[in-house]
Design brief:
single chain; 119 residues; mainly alpha; two-stranded antiparallel ribbon; 4 helices
């Protein structure tokens, strides 16, 4: 027996002797299994792991912010060889273009109809 087992048996014998009022021989059973079993793992704070987890979480956030910030401006069209990057301006210019086409087509249609009725 090693020192821990002897100490445990001695303490147990003293406890039983005090309780019963007489000396008693006590033998521990299975002490090897109890005393030699591995200690349970305890959770503890590890600053190095915490720092690595924080860095692992921060890197994608920083990269995402950089990609969004450095994103090229979207070009909706070109007017007189100059890019139009404002969406509302592109909508207005497109609507203006269609209005001008409708007026131009409308005049042509009117001319065709008047020519037909002149015959």
């Amino acid at each position: 027996m090693d020192l821990r087992e002897n100490k445990a048996e001695q303490m147990l014998q003293e406890y039983v002797a005090r309780e019963r009022g007489r000396s008693v021989k006590v033998q521990l059973k299975g002490t090897d299994e109890i005393l030699n079993r591995p200690k349970p793992r305890t959770l503890h704070f590890n600053p190095a792991k915490a720092a690595s987890f924080a860095a692992a979480a921060a890197i994608p956030l920083i990269l995402g912010a950089m990609l969004l910030y450095n994103q090229e401006t979207k070009v909706y069209g070109y007017i007189n060889h100059k890019p139009v990057t404002d969406k509302q301006q592109a909508i207005d210019l497109t609507q203006q273009m269609f209005d001008e086409l409708a007026v131009a087509d409308g005049k042509a249609a009117e001319d065709i109809l008047t020519d037909l009725f002149k015959l």
